[in-house]
């Protein structure tokens, strides 16, 4: 099970930036175990695990922890395909940001959640989901998204004064000065979310290239593509997506997941059985894939991983990990360290 996907276009943009900063692209790809052929078609979907590995490698090779800020600054509306074009032809910024969040899955998706435009707060908020816990090699993802949003707002409206301040979950990083160069508004660290807090009047700001007729055509195209994805989605994948947003320090029950999917738990059990699957098997699969991602891409302790995945004790996690991989967590980490040397 993939923990999420992004486009080959986005991966290529990261590699292009890394190359300009002095990275050895062939080595980055080899270390990430990513076949370059997967990147030939910009529309191809690539597992987010590869994005994390490439970001980690680029930061290690270049020493530039602010690489996410640099990447976001190079964002364009056309780089988001039909979604970006639909946003560009919107009437107002509110309509444009609604498009970008509503059709986010056409360009990327992650088991951790979805972005959202919150207009029912004292001031409008464009919120990016949490990817905690953070380390020196994961902050670049949040940096890239928030910087891209600021850039897209400017491209849409021609204004750079619509973001009041920026909220970031992780603590103040060592490269804090780079944020002062990247943003013209205050940046607050150690917050409860990752978000842009917009000015009160921001959502009513007109979009420069508004075109009502073309906008409706582009929206219909986005809806067709999203429907195609939904129709092709199995109940197994639907459960995994919901599990990913809930599997943090707890193990959600099938009743809780069924409620999120808008159906009785007995119906969900039947749908999964028809696909030769079962709820507990999917919980185990999700835990396995997320555990492997944490082990490869973070420095979290085994106890921390155990808690995040909802295990009752670290011992229960270690037994499950041995069953998944044939190695203890310690042996697995040691083998990873040997490969990276």
The average pLDDT is 91
Biggest sheet layout: 5 strands, mixed
**Strand numbers in spatial order across the main sheet:** 4-5-8-6-7
**Computed Rg:** 21 Å
The helix fraction, in percent, is 40-55%
Shape from CA axes?
globular
What order do the SSEs take from the amino end to the carboxyl end, as H and E? Answer: EHHEHHHHEEEHEHEEHHHHHHHH
SSE topology sketch:
Layout: E1 4-7, H1 8-20, H2 25-32, E2 45-47, H3 48-62, H4 67-73, H5 81-88, H6 93-102, E3 108-110, E4 116-118, E5 125-128, H7 139-157, E6 163-167, H8 177-182, E7 187-188, E8 194-198, H9 212-232, H10 235-246, H11 254-261, H12 265-274, H13 279-297, H14 302-308, H15 314-325, H16 329-340
Parallel strand pairs: 6-7
Antiparallel strand pairs: 1-2, 1-3, 4-5, 5-8, 6-8
Write a brief structural summary.
The chain has about 350 residues and is an alpha+beta fold. About 55% of the residues lie in helices and about 10% in strands. A hairpin with a 6-residue loop joins strand 4 and strand 5.
Describe the protein's architecture and organization:
This protein has 341 residues and is of the alpha+beta class. The protein folds into 3 domains: 1-64, no CATH class; 70-231, no CATH class; 233-340, Homeodomain-like (Arc Repressor Mutant, subunit A), CATH 1.10.10.60. It has helices at residues 8-20, 25-32, 48-62, 67-73, 81-88, 93-102, 139-157, 177-182, 212-232, 235-246, 254-261, 265-274, 279-297, 302-308, 314-325, 329-340; strands at residues 4-7, 45-47, 108-110, 116-118, 125-128, 163-167, 187-188, 194-198. The protein has a 5-stranded mixed beta sheet. Strands 2-1-3 form a 3-stranded antiparallel beta sheet. Strand 6, helix 8 and strand 7 (187-188) form a beta-alpha-beta unit. Helix 1 runs parallel beside helix 3 (48-62), helix 11 packs across helix 12 and helix 14 (302-308) packs across helix 15. The chain is globular, with a radius of gyration of 21 Å. The mean pLDDT is 91.
């Amino acid at each position: 099970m993939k923990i999420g996907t992004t486009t080959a276009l986005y991966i290529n943009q990261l590699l292009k930036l890394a190359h300009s900063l002095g990275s050895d692209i062939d080595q980055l790809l080899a270390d990430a175990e990513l076949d370059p052929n997967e990147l030939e078609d910009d529309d191809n979907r690539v597992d987010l695990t590869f994005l994390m590995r490439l970001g980690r490698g680029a930061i290690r090779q270049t020493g530039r922890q602010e690489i996410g800020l640099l990447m976001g600054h190079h964002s364009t509306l056309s780089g988001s395909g039909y979604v970006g074009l639909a946003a560009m032809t919107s009437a107002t910024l509110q309509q444009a940001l609604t498009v970008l969040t509503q059709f986010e899955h056409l360009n990327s998706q992650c088991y951790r959640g979805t972005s959202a435009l919150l207009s029912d707060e004292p001031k409008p908020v464009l919120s990016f989901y949490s990817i905690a816990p953070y380390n020196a090699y994961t902050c670049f993802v949040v940096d890239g998204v928030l910087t891209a949003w600021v850039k897209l707002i400017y491209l849409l409206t021609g204004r750079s004064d619509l973001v009041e301040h920026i909220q970031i979950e992780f603590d103040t990083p060592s490269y804090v000065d780079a944020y002062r160069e990247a943003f013209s508004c205050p940046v607050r660290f150690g917050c409860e979310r990752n978000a842009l807090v917009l000015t009160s009047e921001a959502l009513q700001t007109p979009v420069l290239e508004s075109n009502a007729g073309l906008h409706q055509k582009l929206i219909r195209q986005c809806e067709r593509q999203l429907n195609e994805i939904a129709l092709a989605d199995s109940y197994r994948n639907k459960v995994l997506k919901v599990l990913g947003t809930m599997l943090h320090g707890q193990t959600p029950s099938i009743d809780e997941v069924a409620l999120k999917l808008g159906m009785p738990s007995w119906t969900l059990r039947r749908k999964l059985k028809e696909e030769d699957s079962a709820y507990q098997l999917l919980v185990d699969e999700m835990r396995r894939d997320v555990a492997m991602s944490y082990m490869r891409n973070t420095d979290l302790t085994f106890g921390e991983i155990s808690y995040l995945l909802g295990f009752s004790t670290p011992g229960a996690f270690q037994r499950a990990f041995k069953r998944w991989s044939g190695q203890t967590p310690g042996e697995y980490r040691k083998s990873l360290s040997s490969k990276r040397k």
